[in-house]
Amino acid sequence: MIQDQILTADDTVFIHQQIATSSAYRLQAEMLPGYKLIPKDTLESIAERLTTKGKKSKLVDELEQRYGTSMFGQIAMPLFSRDFQTVIVEINQVCFGLCGRGEIFVVRRHKGKWQVVKTISGFIA
Fold first, then answer.
1. Per the structure, how many domains does the chain have?
2. What gap in Å lies between CA 27 and CA 88, rounded to an integer?
3. Contact 72/94 with Cβ under 8 angstroms?
4. Separation of alpha carbons 107 and 118, rounded Å
5. Residue 89 falls within a domain, yes or no?
6. C-alpha of 46 from chain center
7. Model confidence band, residue 70 (pLDDT cutoffs 50, 70, 90)
8. pTM of the model
9. Closest Cα partner for 103 from 88, 119, 81, 87?
10. Would you say 94 and 74 are in contact if contact means Cβ atoms under 8 Å apart?
11. 51 found inside a domain
């Protein structure tokens, strides 16, 4: 992305620092009004409990019962440029083998609005 002039070498150092210190990252509910946030460790705990009991197929049922859905979205920790005007963010939709999609975007603030400037990668299952 340095070649594309999206990030500078200094930005990449700053991004690596964010990754190295990111263990406590938690998405805040007030950032996504109208959505129910389920912590990653909660989902992992449900999946582990059902898998160890040989009930992996019951995972979708439990998600439906507890949260009213069998699919969910994931938002990875955003990685910012040093000036906080550019961010790399990964967004996924998970459906437990039935479907899914995800993309990694580079988003830049321009005149006070965030705009996608590049899609780095994506997948559809």
1. 1
2. 15
3. yes
4. 7
5. yes
6. 19
7. confident
8. 0.75
9. 119
10. yes
11. yes
